[in-house]
């Protein structure tokens, strides 16, 4: 489905083609006709860059933010200054930043590996950072009309699905992120009735993030971006506060 999208939104030179987009809208419903602007946090990452590129191919105006521009989610002052300065509203805000480890070369395998430094740093980048972005959600999303605030979580953040153990800091930070997203969705729905705030698991994706795990089957970032945008396109108002994987299936908390 994402291949049809990409073809439909661009001509043979890769330029945005309004005529093709008309065909695309007929194929995929009304969401693309309404989506004009997206904000991608972490657009330098494997998945974030592919999301930004795919959205641009579909004719969406994308604003990217990353540490390249001095936007660091672990630095509250930089989040406040840069998001506070934005005057636009966005139909889609996608937080694609995050890290598997912060002070170690790999995630913890056993309790003896747990350290306060790693756990605090993982919470800072994976949970507190997105929460600081969410502080701006009600201003960045339109009050009326459909909009999405999506955050990349991870299936290993699911407490119910945890059968393998290990990875204490990463798992706990993503579980905290899921709770933050769920809680924010309830507040945002009070003023933004058509806004959906969701946590998404992208699948295992071939990015620097998974470089240490060569044996796993991985999707390309482009495939992951297409899958995630299909999920975003299919969300209903009743899905807000949910945790979904790249196929649109709910992930247990
Ligand atoms: N890849 C997978 O298989 C997989 C699976 C499950 C979940 N995820 C989740 O998907 C997200 C993206 O993963 P990825 O594979 O695209 O990873 P990636 O290629 O390593 O990209 C990570 C992104 O996060 C940004 N980032 C890291 N620390 C930051 C900070 N302090 N402030 C602002 N931005 C920061 C990076 O920006 P810089 O350019 O500034 O470093 C980069 O844009 C993560 O949240 C990850 O947990 C990935």
Structure, explained:
The chain is α/β, with parallel strands linked by helices. It has a single domain (33-245), classed as NAD(P)-binding Rossmann-like Domain (Rossmann fold, 3-Layer(aba) Sandwich), CATH 3.40.50. It has 9 helices and 6 strands; from the N terminus they run αααβαβαβααβαβαβ. It has helices at residues 2-9, 18-28, 31-34, 46-57, 76-84, 116-134, 137-140, 168-191, 221-234; strands spanning 37-41, 61-65, 92-95, 147-152, 195-201, 243-245. A 6-stranded parallel β-sheet has the order 2-1-3-4-5-6, with helices on both faces. The longest helix is centred in the C-terminal third of the chain and has 24 residues, at 168-191. The two termini are 28 Å apart. Residues 1-14 and 18-30 have low confidence and may be disordered. The structure holds NADP nicotinamide-adenine-dinucleotide phosphate (NAP). This is NAD(P)-dependent dehydrogenase (Short-subunit alcohol dehydrogenase family). It comes from Shimia abyssi.
């Amino acid at each position: 489905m994402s291949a049809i999208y990409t073809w439909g939104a661009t001509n043979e030179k890769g330029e945005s083609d309004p005529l093709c987009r008309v065909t695309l809208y007929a194929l995929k419903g009304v969401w693309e006709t309404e989506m004009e602007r997206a904000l991608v946090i972490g657009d330098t990452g494997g998945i974030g860059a592919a999301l930004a590129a795919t959205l641009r191919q579909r004719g969406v105006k994308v604003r990217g933010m990353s540490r390249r521009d001095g936007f660091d989610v672990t630095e509250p002052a930089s989040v406040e200054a840069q998001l506070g300065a934005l005057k636009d509203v966005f139909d889609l805000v996608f937080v694609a930043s995050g890290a598997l480890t912060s002070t170690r070369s790999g995630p913890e395998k056993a309790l003896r590996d747990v350290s306060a430094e790693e756990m605090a740093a993982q919470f800072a980048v994976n949970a507190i950072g997105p929460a600081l972005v969410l502080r701006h959600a009600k201003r960045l999303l339109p009050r009326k009309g459909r909009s999405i605030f999506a955050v990349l979580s991870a299936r290993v953040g699911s407490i119910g699905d945890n059968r393998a153990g290990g990875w204490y800091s990463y798992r706990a930070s993503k579980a905290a992120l899921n709770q933050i997203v769920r809680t924010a969705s309830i507040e945002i729905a009070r003023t933004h009735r058509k806004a959906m705030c969701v946590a998404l698991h992208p699948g295992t994706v071939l990015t620097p993030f998974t470089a240490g795990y060569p044996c796993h089957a991985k999707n390309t970032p482009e495939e992951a971006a297409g899958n995630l945008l299909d999920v975003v396109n299919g969300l209903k108002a009743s899905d807000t506060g949910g945790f979904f994987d790249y196929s649109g299936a709910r992930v247990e908390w």
